[in-house]
Amino acid sequence: MARTPKPRKAGRRSPLAAAALIGIGLLLTGGIYAGASAAVAATTDQTSTSTKASTLTVDDGKKLFQANCATCHGLDLQGTANGPSLLGVGELAVHFQVSTGRMPMQANSPQAPQKPVQFTDDEIAALAAYVQSVSPGPTYPESQILDGQGDVAHGAELFRINCAMCHNVAGAGGALTEGKYAPSLHSTTALNMYAAMVTGPQNMPVFNNMNLSPEDKRDIISALLYLQQNDSPGGYDLGGLGPVSEGLFIWIFGIGALIAITVWITAKSN
Predict the structure, then answer these.
(1) Pick from 205, 198, 141, 138: which is nearest to 167 by CA?
(2) Does the annotation place 186 within a ligand binding site?
(3) Residue 154 counted as an annotated binding residue
(4) 72 is in an annotated binding site
(5) What is the pLDDT of residues 152-161, one digit of tens each?
């Protein structure tokens, strides 16, 4: 006689249900904890940053200047045999030089190279504010000039006319005389593009509002930002360095391939 299985009691759960419920609970608890921790950390970082920014003053900038810059530029910004005067350069020039790591300069050379930045953003702002307070000069532009929403076509035309002879038509940079060079603009910020045009660092000329209006500067910045954000539509751009790199590529790979094919055909015929 076959045994009749006992009917399962109503409401009885599978043995795996408890483990599943525990796992779901752990996942939910861990997710909530992680989210809360991240939010608290972000709030703490913002608070500490705001506190740090609020505590750095012009006096702090003066102390930073005396400790890091006065040896070359003089205690009163008057300059020395090792560094030019900073009277009248303004906070914009300070921001450009320090935020790109060009200053403080490690050693005298034909041109100050870019290197890792030594100061925080707040310290750079304090340094710039101190220099501006001693001898005012070019200052930060309106945010609209840096928004990248200008006339890209017009900006590209202005760049080709005024800048491409040194920086290359694609903004890739180029060599100058006596060991100097025009740097690549592929990673330059909008603010530093404007600062370079207004302050004329290194061998770059100063473009005042008589040469390039604020709207012209906005268009140039917009064109350069467009280049940064859009890859070359023609394929591999070889660094955008023009006929030198392109000719070298053809010479090595193009003619090299022809020679290899010629040798192969000769070998096969023999």
Answers:
(1) 205
(2) no
(3) no
(4) yes
(5) 999 999 999 9
Residues sharing a CB contact under 8 Å with residue 82, sequence separation 6 or more, in sequence order: 71, 72, 108
> Helix (H, G, I), strand (E, B), or coil: what is residue 34?
helix
C-alpha span between 17 and 1 (Å, rounded): 35
As for how many domains the chain has, the answer is 2
Q: Is 170:227 a contact under the CB 8 Å cutoff?
A: yes
Answer yes or no: do 92 and 151 share one domain: no
Query: Does residue 220 surpass a pLDDT of 60?
Result: yes
Residues 106 and 62 in one domain: yes
Q: Are residues 72 and 134 in the same domain?
A: yes
| Whole-structure pTM value | 0.68
How would residue 67 be classed by pLDDT, with cut points 50, 70 and 90? very high
CA 262 – CA 253 distance, rounded (Å): 14
Q: Is residue 1 part of a domain?
A: no
Asked if 225 and 190 touch (Cβ cutoff 8 Å), the reply is yes
